[in-house]
Amino acid sequence: MTVLLWVLLLVLVVAYWASLKIGIKKHPDLPAEEGKKVILIVVDSLLSEPLESLMAQNKVPAFSFLKEKGSYSNRMVSSFPTMSVTIDSTLLTGTYPDKHRIPGLRWYSLKEKRLIHYGDGVFPTIKSGIKTVMNDGLFHLNNTHLSTQTRTIHEELAVSGRSTASINAIVYRSNHMKDLAIPWPFSKIQTKAPDYFVLGNFYRYMSSGFFPFINYYGVNNRVSIQHLVRMIRKDQLPSFTVVYLADLDHESHKQGELSSESVVQVDRQLQEVFHAFGKWDEGLEKCVFMVMGDSGVSRIKNDKKEAIVDLDQTFSKMRVAPLGSSGPTDEMALAVNERMSYIYPLQDQVELQAMVKELKHDERLDLISWKDKDWVKVMQGGSGKEMRFRKGNTFVDEYHQQWDIEGDMEVLDLKRAPKEEAIGYGSYPDGLMRLYAALHSHEGKFLLVTIQPGYEMKGTGSPTHVGGGSHGGLHEVDSYFPIFIAGTKERPTYNRIVDLKDFILRQM
Known about the structure:
- The structure is a single chain.
- It contains 19 helices and 25 strands.
- The strands form six sheets. Strands 14, 15, 16, 17, 18, 19, 20, 21 and 22 form a nine-stranded mixed sheet that branches. Strands 2-25-10-1-9-5-8 form a seven-stranded mixed sheet, with helices on both faces. A three-stranded antiparallel sheet has the order 3-4-13.
- The protein has two domains: 3-95 and 151-297 and 480-506, Alkaline Phosphatase, subunit A (3-Layer(aba) Sandwich); 304-470, no CATH class.
- Strand 16 and strand 17 form a beta hairpin.
- Residues 1-14 have low confidence and may be disordered.
- It is 33% helix and 25% strand.
- The protein is globular and about 65 Å long.
- The protein is of the alpha+beta class.
């Protein structure tokens, strides 16, 4: 190794070690608040299998305890796109992206003329610029991109004088300014966060040695559980605490499924939380517990040539904007969110229908959709079958949302009884509203494309997961996830993530 590389490595180690030191903050003094507290634990990519198999074998006592003392469902409906930033924004605001304005992990800003992504790999981050991605993910996501017209749970409770906590959640906006510990040579970042706020090495109250904080820069299960357990033992739980457990997501992307041991490990971590109360039942007497996944996962085929639809290749005759700012001659932009994509024409002469023509014959694609005035048009990939819908009063779905619908309802697998105005959902739960919301999540003219289970898209340096797991799509394999609720007899109005904010606020 050359002297230069050794010096660079030494500088990086020193900068990292310094960030470990400056990231530790003084533990906040939270006021004692009456009533039951709510603890929401989000286990990223927790899947109903092998969870249900392990419960049947009595190998996950904490999960089984929650089911026995409360309720369990494996049919909670996620937001769309089924990507963490959009899902978490829906969870905290109680709105879909047409209101909270976080379209996905990647999207194109017409105002800034650039492809925004909040970090989805080392090489895309380097190409976009590390400083740019850090500013988008650590500042803009919560402080400028997330709509100020929609309050988060943290903001709602702050208005009523109640304290809250966010532990390693990536969406967390509240009204307390926090200085993040940003490693040299990058500039300081301030962000609006709750009273008690943990974000990996960037902001925390505990030191657990060197190695737990190397693991994904401190955004991992071990760090999250340690902070929660400490709060419980100090009797310092605020009215609402959200805890993010990230570890399973990394495994699901690599393997396409979860090992029994990894789910058992999460159960052991939940046991630590219940033990902190002394007796498990005491935890439910003091708190409402919600433990949930956030989306499903589709296993991607092993054959890369078959599994991946390369949009760069599909549109190889056009000038596709690179990562970073687009130029005056770029004709289109691709924002690929694993199993869904936004596709943008950047020149007036580039027509949406020309793009549709390039896509519609690929049978691996699931849905191709776009806005047409106040209508949403949807085409089925491969078959070319079409339908359109808009908010109206002709049909009422199972969530009491009203729609006008024309064309072939089979495109969205809508279920309609003969001579009745009621419609139900098949393969695309809450498909009308979730698709409508994504298409109205940000400014501009664009296509929204999803892909069949087992397949994934790529473009503009986006990561792929051949032989592993992926999500992002509207299909039920991406959309359903498990949830446990215990410590209250109340339940959400509907089994949708968008309804959880109202449910949580009712517990206060």
